[in-house]
Write a structure and sequence with these properties.
37% of the residues lie in helices and 33% in strands. By secondary structure, it is α/β, with parallel strands linked by helices. A hairpin with a 2-residue loop joins β5 (97-100) and β6 (103-106). The mean pLDDT is 94. It has a single domain, classed as Ribonuclease H-like superfamily/Ribonuclease H (Nucleotidyltransferase, domain 5). The N and C termini lie far apart (53 Å). α1 packs parallel to α3. The radius of gyration is 16 Å and the shape is globular. It has helices spanning 50-63, 78-93, 110-122, 137-150, and strands at 9-17, 22-32, 38-48, 70-75, 97-100, 103-106, 124-129. It has a five-stranded mixed sheet, sandwiched between helices. The chain has a two-stranded antiparallel ribbon with strand order 5-6.
Length: 154
């Protein structure tokens, strides 16, 4: 018998902008595996960046869960994936700073990373990289929702 907790939620996320920076949208699909129930969410900001929208999609998806869960995150964002799995621990240790040349500078999008960190403390999250625009149905759907979300600003 495995000690690994069973995944309860699949979270599919995407974010994007028209221009970078520019009007941006984020979206996610939450799928509760035991029941098969799904929920779609999206939102937008008038002036933002692709990376901020990618982060916000994950933050909002995780924040919407009413209790701590075991989640598999599917995203096409290498920035989010590497940030979660490789960079964040060091940033936190350095007071949310990263090395640039020989000095420490504030992490870009620090407020988003802090909010994501709070959600990662709450949930057990496994990151899975998805190739964008490759016919992955859920990834294509969240891309469509994210683009639709920022259309009101164009």
């Amino acid at each position: 018998m495995s000690d690994t907790p069973k995944i309860e939620i699949n979270l599919y996320t995407d974010g994007g902008c028209s221009g970078n920076p520019g009007p941006g949208g984020w979206a996610c699909i939450l799928r509760h595996l035991p029941s098969g129930k799904e929920m779609e969410m999206s939102g937008s900001l008038a002036n933002t960046t692709n990376n901020q929208m990618e982060l916000l999609a994950v933050i909002e998806g995780l924040a919407s869960l009413k209790r701590p869960c075991v989640v598999e995150l599917f995203t096409d964002s290498t920035y989010v994936g590497k940030g979660m799995t490789e960079w964040m621990q060091k940033w936190k240790k350095n007071g949310w700073k990263r090395k640039e040349k020989s000095k420490l500078v504030p992490v870009k999008n620090q407020e988003y990373w802090i909010r994501l960190d709070e959600q990662l403390e709450r949930h057990k999250v496994k990151y899975t990289k998805v190739k964008g625009h490759s016919g992955h149905p859920e990834n294509d759907r969240v891309d469509e929702l994210a683009v639709a979300a920022y259309q009101k600003y164009l």
